[in-house]
Amino acid sequence: SAASPRGLEQVLGPLADGTPALIPTQLIEGAGALLIFAVILLYQWRWQRRGGQSFALLIVLQCPLRWFTEHLRRDHDYFFNALPGYPLTVTQVTSGLFLLFGVGLLIWTSRRGPPLTDEPAATT
Fold first, then answer.
1. Cβ-based burial of 10 (10 A; exposed 0-12, middle 13-18, buried ≥19)
2. Which residue of 11, 16, 25, 49 is 20 to 30 Å from 40, comparing CA positions?
3. pTM higher than 0.85 for the full model?
4. How many angstroms separate the Cα of 71 from the Cα of each of 2, 41, 105, 113?
């Protein structure tokens, strides 16, 4: 039966052999998030001219970081094979789709986002 330890080994395959040595991706992701924060803060102070641009930039910068840390986690060896010869995790595929969305949003907000002013928004 699949509930028995031996049956579970057959279901899990190579995962049942034990956990391989892993890279501490939480530290890498945390350092990357701090770097992204600094880049977005600098962008807001110097270059942002329209509303929504910094949010779009956050999406664009977060996606490659997540793609990279997922690759270091080595989950793609077991879970998802989107491209022949290079298995991807679901998160990597999602990151790629969000990257496309983020680039489109950055272009759209750069052209059509509300212009930023130094005045606070009027309250009604």
1. exposed
2. 25
3. no
4. 30, 27, 26, 34
- The answer to whether the beta carbons of residues 49 and 115 sit under 8 Å apart is yes
- Cα 104 to Cα 11: distance, rounded to the nearest angstrom: 42
pLDDT, tens only, 7-22: 666 676 666 666 666 7
The answer to whether 93 and 82 are in contact (CB under 8 A) is: yes
Do 76 and 70 form a contact (C-beta atoms < 8 A)?
Answer: yes
Say how many residues make up the chain: 124
Give 40-99 pLDDT, tens digit per residue: 999 999 999 999 999 999 999 999 999 999 888 866 555 566 666 667 777 888 999 999
Rounded Cα distance between 67 and 69, Å, is 6
Report the alpha-carbon distance of residue 105 to residue 55 in Å, rounded.
Answer: 9
The residue written with tokens 């094979």 in the block is 81
CA distance 45 to 61: 17
